[in-house]
Fold this protein.
Amino acid sequence: MTWNAAGSALMGVALVSALWALAALLLGLRRRDPRLVASGQGAALALAVLLTAAMGLLWAQFAANDFTNQVVAEHSSTDLPLYFKVAALWANNPGSLLLWVWMLSLFAAAAVLLRQKEGREVFPLALSIIMGVALFFLGVLNFVPTARPFVALAQPPLEGLGLNPLLQHPAMTIHPPMLYLGFVGFTLPFAYALAALIQGTPGVSWIRATRRWTLVTWLLLSFGITLGGEWAYMVLGWGGYWAWDPVENASLLPWLTGTAFLHSVMVQERKGMLKAWNVALVAGTFLLTLFGTYLSRSGILASVHAFVDPTLGQWFLTFLAFLVVFTAGVMVLRRSLLRDDRPFESLLSKESSFLFNNLLLVSFAFAVLWGTLFPLISQWLGGVKIAVTQEFFNAVNVPLGIALIFLMGVAPVLPWGKASGRQAVQAFGGPLLAAALFAVLAVVLGIRRPLAVAAFAASLFVLFVTVLEFWGGTVARMRMTGEKPGTALMRLTTRARRRFGGYLVHLAIVLMVLGITGSSAYKMERTVTVNPGDTITIGRYSLTYQGMQMARRGRVAEVTAPLLVSSGGKLLPEPLRPGQRVYPGNPSPMAMVAIRGSLQEDLYVVLGGFGGNPDSQRVNGFLQVPASFNIVVNPLVAWIWIGRYLLVAGALFAVWPEPPRAARSVPVQAALEPRRREVLS
Amino acid sequence: MQKQIKAGQWEGWALKKQTRVLLAVGVILSAVAFLIVNAFGQGKQYYLTVDEALAQGSALAGKPVRMSGALDPSTVSFDLSGPVLTFSVKGQNGGLVPIVYHGVKPDNMDMATQAIVEGRFDRSGSFLANKVMLSCPSKYQSSQTAAAVGNVPGSRTATQ
């Protein structure tokens, strides 16, 4: 038996295993037979083992340059370093779909093995829903010809086609798996929500059971999206990190609705409100992850993604349509369970501000979806295909984003139920005033663009409110317990991890917004052609071109154009070396972006091209030929990447297990949330 | 305070509050609708194939257009001194549109087979692009790659 036959057999057995799990769980639930349910759970574990074996086999084939496998032959080559061979597995359609379902099976197995107490009554049904989703993917992997990962080539080539050089970047080894984990993980809360609804289980146990899953998933999705942006920025060489491209939008959509969901479940947990909304939101998020997976494969939107696979598209669309009808049907049949316990009492309350935050996030998602699909919508409505530009997305989403930032300052300090105007002023009047003063200062200092000033002021407002939360809580705790500042801060935050972890994430978003504002509103860009000895000035920099240098690194030919850079009149010790590489078998050169980064701004240089020929005159080893450069100064862009790490830290802080409740003494508990208590009383 | 209000009164009062929240929801949604409608005015462009664009002729002059077509590699020329990139895209009926792009040549120009350009037609029928996107479906199965990584590596974007 060949390895490819073994792989195909594994995929077949995996399909049977998922089918077994689904059938045994459903039948076991119907007959109230614990042995059948246990058998179904066992099959779910077996599925994880089988798919791990399949992934291992495919990875081994990549590592061993087994070009009898079509996927390996088309996406790898012998000269590829091992870590890129590992990444090449998901740089193609079959491999990435296998990665998807493998991750799903691991999530499912982890859920089986963890035996969470919370939500146990709905777990078998939830697991069967997860198995149903896995079954869909396994169906695709087994039966759609272009999606099969173990197709044997009759005449295997001696050398593979290689991995697209653009993907040969460290970020590409972790960006896709992160993004996929961030997609796949939303299957769990969706499955629990639907299972609880189908079984008629009232209450919030499905939310409690999936809270950590959801948060970790959201964290990975956030990380995956920003990694993609960083890769585009560092590698693609157009000076930006986000272009509202359909495939980028596809990853942002579930992030937006998932973020809304993280907030709105708190309202249901605390007040028994927004029940139907939460189910719709988690279902929508899950569907958007599938839609994103579909969109990036179907080729229906940007024909630059020349790959069109109508068969695969039909599978996804059919499954999506089925899920929409199924979820909507369950929601209608179980509508009595989705009635809220109470109405909204006041505009000035935590639940109302969460409601508004949700409306804005979902509106944001709607605008992105609408803009992304508009070529299809307009063609369908009027026969004329009309696309929207980046300006459309910015014109809608920048104001929405600023409003969202503002709410990030308001919602944390408003009490549940209702607050009086006086309480509200007490809670965030100071920070608001301070932010306004800084905004005036910014205008005086020359930051005049209205949206930039608004984004700046809203960010500062959130910063002040959040820091005050840490400060006020620590001081109150010190007064009450006599603890030292460090201890008080530690205990304050580690005993309300969800809350303070959330605040850290808010601060992270603020940093990222500052980075986005700076680099989009105050970007400077020049495209010029110069001769050796010429100096280009941009902002406070002057760059002197000396000529080209040629080098060869293994099979890769490299040209660089070292530029002497002075900043504010001071020569920097290291020249910037933008260049181009020519990879074997690939006629087009790849740009090597040169970046001089600082917390204040990035100087970003791309070599666009050069003239002359290798026989041109050389001075000190520099070929004396003209060259063209694209030079960008991107203010504050580093804060986007820094904010991302704070976001990860904050989210991890929030999901970290809290100490057992028994360990807390009563007076300490009373001191836990002094500020909130103050506002409430 | 709240305890002094009788049950019936309380319900009516709560409803009124709920109405207020609903009103706020309405205001937010209207604002969003306004933003979207307003944004359409700023960021809309025709999405045409080369054939469709040629069929409309001079009626398109000056209007924002995104146009896709086959790239004819023999027409690519890059003048470093501008820098100016010129090339032609071809429709399925064989019609050619000359493209002028003031900017550097995208990396994968030499192996691209499809181009999407954004910009405007001038009166002479040339297309002044401010954005050039290319795709090269052949060797790396760039499209599949694009699918897998959630980005557009097969297509390189150049923006002015």
